[in-house]
Amino acid sequence: MSYDIYCLSYKNPRRKSQMESRFKQLEMKCIFSDGVDHNDWSIMLGTLEVIQQFYNSGKEFCIFCEDDVYIHKDLKLMLPKVMEDFKLMNLDILLLGYLIPFEIKSYYHGFELKSDNPNLNYTYHNYPDDLWGVQMILFSRSHAKYILEKYTIQYAIKSRKDPTLQPFSTDHTITKTGNRALIYPMLAVETANKTTGHFGQDTFHENCNKCNYDPDIYI
Q: Which of 10, 55, 143, 164 sees the fewest Cβ atoms within 10 Å?
């Protein structure tokens, strides 16, 4: 296979078990990463650790997902065609799962169709910088190299003093670089089980789930 799937799960046996069950139902292999000890940069550092592991593997593509997502029941069948499309569009990164509380239309500003190539298997859109979420992403080996070389600890330290630099976090860096697109409908939907204690944040995540989750499509 030309790709590996990685899931970042930091000290959460329940979530990890749920994701293991989902991938098992799909008969798909997933490599789990424990991440790093919690601090301001833990998620980003854990993600970079996964990206380094992928880059060392020599595989062509990497799929990275969080540990609290429902997965499209046809993911295994769809991925080869998605990767064909990825190459046709010469992408660096493709969002397969993300946070959005409304249906995407191609006439929405910032969400125009990525390509009108009739040979594409699925529908892809551009996305604006204020779209968040790394519920599931697909990226190339060359983009992994770019990420690892740019977003170092030195960058993290410098970003705290230089407001012109993007913050050292996955949402501000990895998904905001390169030739990018999203697939719609998405292939992974957040479970919305997060309870941050912030009413606005929790409500936003719940609304994203309600808009995109269909039990007949996702497990």
A: 164
